[in-house]
């Protein structure tokens, strides 16, 4: 089973268990995302180690191939048959070891490719989880705000309106007692000005009548 399949099975099992035990889905999803990130980081470390091992294997294979070629050259140029045969034996041993390591290298390269695919899938999995979490958080916040507004409108709207009215009445009483009621003072000012204007007009009319009587 690949690391991605193992992670997916473990994550699904854990999320199902946690969802059945608690209602804090945001916390459950956060735990799942942490697991996904941890699995991604673990796979990246493993990939780096495979790359280093593969590089060492490749270096060893290249060295053995070079040794095999060198021993064959020595065998071909050696006049002594026994020594030439020994050179050839060493060339074959080096070649056989190089072939065995080359097989191991091919298997490791195949494993590394599969791991790279798993890592890319894990990366996309983490990004998808984070994106869905952000979307659901936004929807949850919107739904919660709507629910609270509905609650205020249905259950507490009348109570709040009554509280606002009492508050306003109390402020008005304090303004009257302290002489700082802006609306009443403004009305009084207008009324005083209007009364003064009426009196002036009446006075002017009286004066005009007195002048006519004298004539």
Could you characterize the architecture of this molecule?
This protein is mostly helical. It folds into two domains: 3-156; 166-214. Helix content is 94%, strand content 0%. It has four helices and no strands. The model is unreliable at 18-22 and 211-215 (pLDDT under 50).
Name the structural class. mainly alpha
What low-confidence regions span 5 or more consecutive residues with pLDDT below 50?
Answer: 18-22, 211-215
Largest sheet: none
Number of strands: 0
> Gap between N and C termini, in Å?
126 Å
How are the SSEs ordered, and which strands pair?
Layout: H1 3-21, H2 25-77, H3 81-178, H4 182-214
Helix pairs in contact: 1-2, 2-3
Brief descriptors of the model:
disordered C terminus; 215 residues; mainly alpha; 0% strand; 2 domains
Give a brief description.
With 215 residues, the protein is mainly α. Helices cover 94% and strands 0% of the residues. The longest helix is centred in the middle third of the chain and has 98 residues, at 81-178.
């Amino acid at each position: 089973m690949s690391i991605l399949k193992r992670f997916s099975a473990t994550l699904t099992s854990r999320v199902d268990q946690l969802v059945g035990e608690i209602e804090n889905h945001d916390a459950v999803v956060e735990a799942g995302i942490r697991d996904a990130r941890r699995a991604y980081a673990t796979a990246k470390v493993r990939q780096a180690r495979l790359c280093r091992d593969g590089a060492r294997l490749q270096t060893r294979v290249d060295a053995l191939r070079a040794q095999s070629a060198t021993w064959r050259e020595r065998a071909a140029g050696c006049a002594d048959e026994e020594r030439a045969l020994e050179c050839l034996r060493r060339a074959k041993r080096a070649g056989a070891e190089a072939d065995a390591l080359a097989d191991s290298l091919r298997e490791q390269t195949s494993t590394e490719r599969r791991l790279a695919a798993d890592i890319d899938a894990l990366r996309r999995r983490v990004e998808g989880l984070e994106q869905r979490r952000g979307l659901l958080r936004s929807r949850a916040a919107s739904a919660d705000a709507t629910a609270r507004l509905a609650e205020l409108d249905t259950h507490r709207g009348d109570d709040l309106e009554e509280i606002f009215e009492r508050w306003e009445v109390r402020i008005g009483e304090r303004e009257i007692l302290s002489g700082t009621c802006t609306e009443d003072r403004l009305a009084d000012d207008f009324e005083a000005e209007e009364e003064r204007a009426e009196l002036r007009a009446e006075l002017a009319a009286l004066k005009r009548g007195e002048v006519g009587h004298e004539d």
